[in-house]
Amino acid sequence: MEEGKTKMEEGNENRKATAYEEALDALSSLITKRNRIEPGDRSYSLDLIREYVKMLDLEEAISKMSVIHVAGTKGKGSTCTFTESILRHCGFRTGLFTSPHLIDVRERFRLDGVDICEEKFLAYFWWCYDRLKEKATEEAPMPTLFRFLALLAFKIFAEEQVDVAILEVGIGGKLDATNVVRTPVVCGVTALGYDHMEILGNTLGQIAGEKAGIFKHGVPAFTVSQPEEAMRVLEETAAKLDVSIL
Fold it and tell me: Please, which domain of life does this record's source organism belong to (predicted)?
């Protein structure tokens, strides 16, 4: 401990450290080691995510949230970060959800460009965790790690009343937990390549189809230049949804 701290201050810091470690242990219990999503696997369905959203009473908050949704293989994290910075410097209160984290899980949740503080993280974490634990059933067990973190992000951004939330897709798009958002302000797809093929498919077309799953009817979408096979799928998906893809 730093010189000059009282025993009471040292005790408070130790209690805080223990509380944070307990939260990390609880998070670790949500880790799964599945390498493939089988057809019809309800544990990865959007319907189940929507049930969790109802458990947390977040339906209305998410429906009112201004969301920028970004999928892709390369560059989606940096694209989200650049977007957040631009909007913040234009005077908007921002929320940024990205993955993975390098050192501390709080890196995934940024408010106005700063990692959420430990005190707020713990308050929102246990609020979500305890309610989901209480309401979990055999049909709706505790969510997997990333799904829980996405739900936590929605809770944080709703309570902190951000003007805009920038969300980075975890894997794919169509079945990703972030895709519970029904009406984003805009969607974006960064450079596509071969990633998570055991889940998303073996061809660029199949992978592009999963990423394009974030497109919503009439919501503008942006993409960088893509390989022909991937671009064709993005354009076809956009056309079906009356989306102008730029």
Answer: Eukaryota
Contact 73, 190 (CB under 8 A): yes
pLDDT tens track for 87-143: 999 999 999 999 999 999 999 999 999 999 999 999 999 999 999 999 999 999 999
Considering the domain boundaries, does residue 190 fall inside one? yes
CATH number of the domain within which 51 lies: 3.40.1190.10
Q: Please give the distance of CA 122 from its chain centroid, rounded to a whole number.
A: 18
Q: For residue 243, what are the contacts with CB-CB under 8 A and spacing of at least 6?
A: 215, 216, 217, 218, 219, 220, 221, 237
Peptide bond connecting 141 to the previous residue in cis, omega within 30 degrees of 0: no
**Cα gap 131→133, rounded to integer Å:** 5
* pTM for the whole structure: 0.90
Give the side-chain half-sphere CA count within 13 A for 179. Answer: 22
**Predicted local confidence at residue 35, as pLDDT:** 52
Q: Is 87 among the domain residues?
A: yes
Could you tell me the residue range of the domain that residue 121 belongs to?
43-194
Cβ pair 199, 176 in contact under 8 A: no
Q: To the nearest whole number, what is the mean pLDDT of the chain?
A: 91
What is the phi/psi pair of residue 67, to 5°?
-120, 135
Instruction: For residue 131, report the phi and psi dihedrals to the nearest 5 degrees.
Output: -70, -40
Q: How many domains does the chain have?
A: 1
